[in-house]
Amino acid sequence: MSLQVGDVAPDFTANDQNGNRVRLSDYRGKKVVLYFYPKDDTPGCTAQACSLRDNYTALQQAGYEVIGVSVDGEKAHQKFISKYELPFTLISDTDQKVVEAYDVWKEKSMYGRTYMGTVRTTFVIDEGGVITEIIGKVDTKKHAEQILK
Name one GO molecular function term (predicted). Predict the structure, then answer.
């Protein structure tokens, strides 16, 4: 059952990079860019995070809060944030509850090997918690532009 534009975004509670509990419902009244990515500090994920970082002021001026989600642990997130000076929250979804709730935990394959992993997807959520856009074909280098268009 895939999420669609117009659906209420599934609420979740998970730890951020500092071990603080974050709930999506805490962001009601704000627009949210909830982006799911495979792994900290890999080329595509770094390009995507840096696009959001470099355009963070414009995203905030447009009313967006940015939250990244991967199955990496808090320490990996802390290193990633520190290395690239990322100004937004990263959720540590080590138990895969959030990626499964958003149906982005899928079978993938690389070099003939099949494995489960996060499919890079961004959900744009309005002030009422409703999904207004789903970006499945993410341009990692121009991701902020895809959101702001």
Answer: thioredoxin peroxidase activity
